[in-house]
Design a protein that fits this description.
24 helices; 17 strands; Myotubularin-like_Pase_dom; Myotubularin phosphatase domain-containing protein; alpha+beta; 767 residues; globular; 4-stranded mixed sheet
């Protein structure tokens, strides 16, 4: 008799389980053949049941799959009875099989008994009074998986359902599988440890972690922020538990001043420097000042220090995001709403929170608009900006990241984007553990802030496809990685929590003191843990025109150069009432929703073009500089549904040989062919310019080529391969089993709507 207590340290169940066994136990040749390489890391089978039917369609059972359903201490696995044919139509994950779901990815575990008409949502330590005939798994990556136990033993089916529900509700953070997996991985790979982003960790680390002064020093030098310095006042987290140990502060502020001021901020969070504009203006984020008596005094001192850091002693503006943007509850309810419409196919939104929520597209527009207004202050007004939020750990993460993405092309490269997330989310103390609800303890704290940010990034990519080095596949995979509890990036609420848990982890796993935490518990940026080198090339955008990219003009290869725009002629003097961030009867920033035509007050009888309107008019009147300032268009028709993310599992939305992937396929082949020719030119060793080029053995080795789709031989047909669909590199096959969406708002959208105007409109559009 096995007890959960031996593995999970919680309540002992009163039902029997089979003896523990490892997934790589040679019980069946077909099962062994389909096990992943990572199963050597002691993944434990908690329970299993044979003769399970995985439903592919709710309408018919002809395409259903038969196999074994297994619950381990990491994931739910479905091992097919018959070996499937090898497919090329989806990513091959090194840690997860095609039919695997990480336990942290499960949102709801629902058991059904058709004969008795009963249904129950299972949680941890719950009993099940009926034998289930079906198991429905609702996943956080929008999948809906359905398993039927027609031929399975009723008791075995009940046990595996209870095991899945129990293990998907861990009692404590250290019980997540990553703490077991990374410990074994470290010792088994000691001396030959994997690389991060293709480089030896800390030897040539491409993505800085920002847990040491040198990372911040490089960022200060890169942005020419001469008025700022790295400060160690929070070393060992002496001042704030949610701030990083090293922060960047104005040179004019002494450490003793910072210690005195810190007690007045929420959670003692001192103002954080984010980024410096080439004109000297700075982007700063700050928590609210808890003492209203001291608020004006402390704010004035902070504003004065930031003003001194500016070469022209320019003004400082403050934007209170709590007052002008949706809160985390609004964001959560709007996301639930769009998920219901896209995935579940609701004919109407029956829940009260859907009725009163703001639409997801409206939330995206609000954040992009406000970020654009901050850009105007930094770039157009030449003024520093403070982003203020009560705790400085949610909305500030989204807006500060978007502002830097719009202004700095460095953050639109793959490594730069990862460093942006590391700096503005991970080290700034975003509550990933609570907002992702990994422990499923408090649904009220759950909110998809990071998902909102990724959707905003996709909106910009959709409008400026050549400005980003990475692809929407990369963004989608990054969002999925939140639900794989093996990386330090998305597991913790703060840098201190991360550091303390990893110190304890190192002691428990006999890891030598002083070993780099990025080595023994790496971040998600070590993509080699999840994907092969070949599959990682799906992250590379063939249209990218950033640093290092080249174009051919008149037969010559030329590199792109960034053009510098000057808006000083279109910006008028700042009113004295707004100087140094202090209000004088007017708002410190333009009103919410004021962009382009919306910048004009409705009550104004005379329409006079304001400096901000002129700024954006000048910007949009010229061709977009893909390596310069980028502001997205924000009319409702410009904000689209991110189809690859929201509709990748929807069979009705899957277009064979259609969608953006067809253009991606052709462009990748073209870029690969160009790079082969460039490599051959570099190998040319002719004695003189007029001589005949020597034949080259070919381009770079296949494993060093950047494109996923390689240049095809001249005789090959130009048609895309059969496995390409609009859902590529994902497949809806068996990942979304629910009733037909015929007659629902999403079906009407798929059947002819060209513009996703608003999820609010679709939700109210009843049959």
């Amino acid at each position: 008799v096995f007890s959960f207590k031996s593995v999970f340290k919680t309540k002992i169940y009163n039902f029997e389980l089979p003896p523990l066994m490892h997934l790589n136990a040679p019980s069946d040749n077909r099962e062994v053949r389909h096990q992943k390489e990572e199963d050597v890391h002691q993944r434990i089978v908690v329970n299993e049941v044979n003769f399970v039917r995985k439903c592919i369609s709710a309408e018919s059972s002809q395409e259903d799959l038969w196999g074994k359903l297994i619950c381990t201490n990491f994931k739910v696995s479905f091992i097919l009875q018959d070996a499937p044919p090898k497919q090329k139509s989806h990513l091959s994950h090194l840690l997860l099989g095609e039919h695997d779901i990480p336990l942290t990815c499960l949102e709801q575990v629902v058991t059904v008994n058709d004969t008795r008409g009963k249904k129950k949502v299972l949680g941890s330590n719950q009993k099940l009074k009926f034998n289930p005939t079906e198991l429905i798994l609702y996943c956080k990556d929008l999948r809906i998986l359905r398993f039927c136990f027609d031929e399975a033993g009723p008791e075995s089916a009940k046990k595996v359902c209870l095991a899945i529900a129990h293990y998907s509700h861990p009692a404590d953070l250290h019980l997540l599988f990553g703490f077991e997996y990374q410990g074994r991985r470290y010792h088994e790979s000691k001396g030959t440890y994997g690389t991060v982003n293709g480089s030896t960790p800390r030897g040539g680390l491409r993505t800085p972690i920002f847990d040491r002064p040198s990372d911040w020093d490089r960022e200060i030098k890169r942005t020419s922020a001469s008025g700022w310095r790295v400060c160690s006042v929070n070393e060992s987290f002496d001042i704030s538990k949610s701030l990083p140990e090293y922060i960047v502060v104005p040179v004019s502020l002494a450490d003793q001043d910072l210690k005195r001021y810190s007690i007045f901020f929420t959670d003692q969070r001192l103002p954080l420097w984010c980024w410096n504009h080439p004109n000297g203006s700075a982007l700063v984020r700050m928590a609210s000042i808890s003492d209203p008596v001291q608020q004006r005094k402390i704010e004035q001192r902070v504003f004065t220090a930031i003003t001194k850091s500016h070469p022209q002693r320019s003004d400082v503006f403050k934007s209170d995001l709590d007052k002008c943007l949706p809160n985390i509850q609004d964001i959560q309810s709007s996301f639930v709403k769009v998920r219901h419409i896209c995935v579940i196919g609701e004919r109407r939104c029956r829940d009260n929170h859907c009725k009163y929520s703001t639409s997801w597209c409206s939330v995206i527009r609000a954040f992009l608009k406000h970020s654009a207004e901050i850009v105007y202050c930094l770039d157009g007004k030449n003024a520093s900006v403070i982003l203020q939020e009560e705790e400085d750990r949610d909305l500030n993460c989204v807006v500060s990241s978007l502002v830097q993405l719009m202004l700095d092309p460095q953050y639109r490269s793959l490594t730069g984007f990862q460093s942006l997330v590391q700096k503005e989310w991970v080290m700034a103390g975003h509550r990933f553990l609570d907002r992702c609800n990994h422990l499923k303890k408090n649904d009220k704290e759950e909110s998809p802030l990071f998902m909102l940010f990724l959707d905003c990034v996709w909106q910009m990519m959709n409008q400026y496809p050549a400005a980003f080095e990475f692809t929407e596949t990369y963004l989608t995979v990054l969002s999925d990685s939140m639900w794989i509890p093996l990386f330090s990036t998305f597991l913790f609420n703060s840098p201190k929590q991360r550091a303390q848990h990893l110190i304890d982890f190192a002691k428990n796993k006999a890891i030598p003191a002083g070993e780099d935490q990025a080595v023994y518990f790496p971040p998600v940026w070590d993509w080699s843990q999840q994907f092969s080198t070949k599959d990682q090339t799906l992250f590379n955008n063939p249209m990218y025109v950033g640093k290092g990219a080249a174009c051919v003009q008149n037969g010559e290869v030329k590199t792109f150069t960034r053009t510098k725009r000057n808006y000083s002629s279109s910006v008028r003097a700042t009113p004295s009432s707004l100087r140094n961030g202090l209000k004088g009867g007017e708002e410190t920033l333009t009103r919410r929703g004021s962009l382009l035509s919306e910048l004009k007050p409705d009550f104004s009888p005379v329409k006079v073009e304001s400096p901000s309107e002129r700024f954006f008019r000048d910007l949009f009147s010229q061709p977009a500089d893909q390596r310069g300032l980028l502001i997205p268009l924000l009319m409702p028709s410009h904000v689209a549904l991110w189809k690859l993310y929201f509709l990748r599992w929807v069979p009705e939305a899957c277009i064979p040989k259609g969608g953006p992937i067809t253009a991606f396929h052709k462009l990748s082949q073209l870029v690969d062919e160009i790079e082969i020719l460039q490599s051959q030119l570099r190998q040319y060793k002719g004695p003189s310019p007029g001589s005949t080029p020597l034949p080259s053995p070919g381009g770079p080795p296949v494993n060093q080529r950047r494109m996923y789709f390689k240049a095809s031989p001249q005789n090959d047909p130009p048609t895309p391969p059969d496995f390409l669909t609009s859902s590529f590199p994902f497949t809806p096959m068996g990942n979304l089993c629910r009733r037909s969406i015929h007659g629902t708002p999403i079906s009407k959208f798929l059947n002819g709507a060209r513009i996703w105007l608003s999820t609010e409109t679709l939700a109210n559009d009843t049959v």
